[in-house]
Amino acid sequence: MTDSREDLAAKKFKCSVRERAMFEAGIKMGTIYHQFVGVPVDQESVGALEDAIEKGVLVQPYVESVKVTIDRSIFGSKKDEYSYHSLSGEMLDVILTIRIDDVRVRAEMRYDPVLKYPLMYVSGIE
Fold first, then answer.
1. Mean pLDDT score of the chain, rounded to an integer?
2. Which of 7, 22, 42, 114 could form a disulfide with 3, with the two C-beta atoms 3.0–4.6 Å apart?
3. Is the Cα dihedral 99, 105, 108, 109 positive or negative?
4. pLDDT over 60 at 1, yes or no
5. Please, which residues have CB within 8 angstroms of residue 79's CB and are 6 or more apart in sequence?
6. pLDDT at residue 7 above 60?
């Protein structure tokens, strides 16, 4: 019998399913941050960018759900052709759920004003 792709991949991980789920959550968060920070965005395109990030993450393995919210408080009315912002980590709010077998990991990315840093962290494990 031939192993499935999942079985072949699972054999590479020398850790528990729980640890693998946390690893997968970290990979997804890093992807969101490093792929999208710097993207030009304005009030008119912010919703489409949130949707694109979510849809891009959802096609990755083990993603059960993802919700991306971009802080709109920096946007004013567009004054001219040069009135846009570049997406920054401070603007991202992400909640992601990874599921592998019966393990669910909830990870979040939020700007922490005390740390002055867009912190990525595990907020729950079931």
1. 94
2. 7
3. negative
4. no
5. none
6. yes
Phi, psi of 41 (to 5 degrees): -150, 145
Name the pTM for this structure. Answer: 0.89
What angle, 0 to 180 degrees and rounded to 10, lies between the N-to-C axes of helices 17-36 and 46-58? 150
User: 99 - beta bridge partners?
Assistant: 104
Tokens of 47: 């919703």
* Signed CA dihedral, 76, 39, 44, 56: sign only: negative
How far is the C-alpha of 51 from the C-alpha of 56, rounded, in Å?
8
Question: How far is the C-alpha of 67 from the C-alpha of 28, rounded, in Å?
Answer: 12
CA distance 11 to 8: 5
Class of domain 15-125: alpha beta
Q: What is the pLDDT of residues 42-100, one digit of tens each?
A: 999 999 999 999 999 999 999 999 999 999 998 877 778 877 889 999 999 999 999 99
Non-local (6+) Cβ contacts of 73 within 8 A are: none
Please state the length of the chain. Answer: 126
